[in-house]
Amino acid sequence: MRVGPRHAHVLGSGGVLRTINGGHGRRLTAHRAPARNSWRTSTTIGAYLGRCRSNFGEPTHARPLDRRHRPPPGHRPGPPAEPRRASTPAPAPRPAQGGGDVFETPAPGKPPRFEGLTDKALIQALHDAAAKHKDLGYNQARKIIFTELDNHEGKVKCVYTGRELRTDKIPNASDMNTEHTWPQSKGATGAAKSDLHHLFPTDSKANSQRSSYPFGEVQKVKWSSPSGAKLGTDAEGRTVFEPPPEHKGNVARAMFYFSTVYGKAIPAAEEAALKKWNVQDQVDAAELTRNGAIEKYQGNRNPFVDDATLAQRIADF
Ligand SMILES: [Ca+2]
């Protein structure tokens, strides 16, 4: 894990997130309400998230380079200028929200990464940045999701329906299981099958409804959940799945991540919906925390969560 130019935070006992590596003269704090599974963020995190929002449409400005441009063919790059995480990250046996965990979040005020890159060059850079992440294996990935990453005070919540299940292990697959936001039948195989950045807990029936349909905006509803997830047909009559509003941006950023890391194209109609959702449902503290927790397990972040403007620099995923 890099520290230095970025802030690192310690999630201390009682869920207090504190800055351990300032350097930008600003301080982040967040306090987790122990009785409720929600985050109350300080105004500084609010200001950071607000900045992410305000970045939409703003011109880029002078920024320090945080990664190399793609090298010419045959070039063997030397070691990076700043120390990087080892290719095999340290094991992370503790729950993501337990005491003493260290993870990174982008420093408030720190400009986005991947300076100056757009389209194919940006896709290549995003692919390269994730190339050495650790393949956890599917069983370990599911165990992490249900017992640590998405287990909050003993309960796991379906991202499509909001249904909660109390569990301390991988549940019966007919009750709650693991959603591959990028479907296995469309290429989420091998290491991609176990990549936590696009895996979420889901109610098994809702997962069956989604099946491997593309995401889109439902006009004619065939199935829906109380939380607002829908299966049906879009304006062109295609069968599509629409997540509930609070998960739409998470889906979009997971799909952008998957497309760039694993070299899969997103169909145009689906991409249009995802880009819209990326703006509508912007990154919140919980999504940022999950991104940092996943980095502990598999050694890479989802850059589309760290920089909400990144997707706008790729015209065609
Ligand atoms: Ca969201």
Percentage of residues in strands: 15-25%
Shape call: globular
- Mean pLDDT level: 77
Q: In order across it, which strands form the biggest sheet?
A: 4-3-2-1-5
Unreliable runs: 1-105
Query: How many distinct folded domains?
Result: 1
Task: Write down the Rg.
Answer: 19 Å
Give a quick account of the main beta sheet: strands, pairing sense, barrel closure: 5 strands, antiparallel
The topology string of helices and strands comes to EEEEHEHHEEEEEHEEEHHHH
Task: Find the count of extended strands (DSSP E, 2+ residues).
Answer: 13
Structural class: alpha+beta
Q: What is the helical fraction, as a range of percent?
A: 25-40%
The end-to-end span amounts to 28 Å
| Annotation field: number of helices | 8
Bound ligands = calcium ion
Kindly describe this structure.
The protein is α+β, with helices and mostly antiparallel strands. The protein has one domain. Helices cover 29% and strands 16% of the residues. It is built from eight helices and 13 strands. The chain has helices spanning 43-54, 119-130, 138-149, 204-210, 245-262, 268-280, 285-298, 303-306, and strands spanning 8-11, 16-19, 29-33, 38-41, 101-104, 151-152, 155-157, 164-166, 176-180, 199-203, 220-224, 230-233, 239-242. The strands form four sheets. The protein has a five-stranded antiparallel sheet. Strand 12 (230-233) and strand 13 (239-242) form a beta hairpin. Helix 5 (245-262) packs across helix 6. The longest helix is centred in the C-terminal third of the chain and has 18 residues, at 245-262. It starts with 7 loop residues before the first strand and ends in an 11-residue tail after the last helix. The structure holds calcium ion. Calcium ion binds at residues 246-247, 249-250, 281, 284, 287.
